[in-house]
Every structure is written in C-alpha cells, then in structure tokens.
Amino acid sequence: MSDNEGRTDLRMPDDDEVFAVVTEMLGANRVAVRCMDGTNRTARIPGKMQKRIWIREDDVVLVDPWDWQDEKADITWRYEKQQADQLREEGHIQE
C-alpha cells in the first residue's frame, strides 16, 4: 500500500458527467467552466449547493451538460483541493 499512500477513492463521473475547472464567476449562481471534453460552458450552481458548498475560481467540479443546449451545464459535485490534486496526478484533468 506504499504506492497508494494518501489516495482516497474519489467520486468519478457518471455516464453523462464531465470533469471541469471553474474559470470565472459570473454571478447569479452561474460560473464559466472549461470542461475536459474541450468545451467551455456556462454552469449553474444548483440550489441545494448554493448555501452549503462554496465554489471559487480554479475549483475542479463535475458538470452534467444539458441535453438540449450543449453550452450549458449543471454542477453536480465539487472536489476539495487535495482531491483535485490527486485527479491531476492520475491524469483525469489536463490543464
């Protein structure tokens, strides 16, 4: 277990979810994100996350792109800084 020291099992994206990095705070519960599929999207912070989870620029999040409007998405999960560093080390996130 020495090579996995400090590694935790992280929540991975479901079928339609994508890793993204927050690039800009837009206000009105919206953020600009750069998704790992190469698309820049406007993501919504859902009501259940607004008061409990603070989202800042450069945070790594999971987004669920909208079926009917590909340039928009909903944020479903935010990773802590340590978890985000682990995702980068494992190659899930390209800067």
CATH superfamily of the domain at 18-82: Nucleic acid-binding proteins
Q: How many strand elements?
A: 5
Uncertain residue ranges: none
Q: Looking across the biggest beta sheet, what order are the strands in?
A: 1-2-3-5-4
Largest β-sheet summary: 5 strands, mixed, barrel
Average of the residue pLDDT scores: 84
Number of H/I helices: 2
CATH architecture verdict of the domain at 18-82? Beta Barrel
CA-based gyration radius: 13 Å
Percent of residues in β-strands:
35-45%
Structure, explained:
One of its GO terms (molecular function) is RNA binding. Seems to be required for maximal rate of protein biosynthesis. Enhances ribosome dissociation into subunits and stabilizes the binding of the initiator Met-tRNA(I) to 40 S ribosomal subunits. Keywords: Initiation factor, Protein biosynthesis. This protein has 95 residues and is mostly beta strands. The chain has a domain at 18-82: OB fold (Dihydrolipoamide Acetyltransferase, E2P) (Beta Barrel), CATH 2.40.50.140. It is 14% helix and 36% strand. It has helices at residues 47-50, 81-89, and strands at 18-27, 30-35, 40-44, 60-65, 72-78. The model has no long low-confidence stretch (mean pLDDT 84).
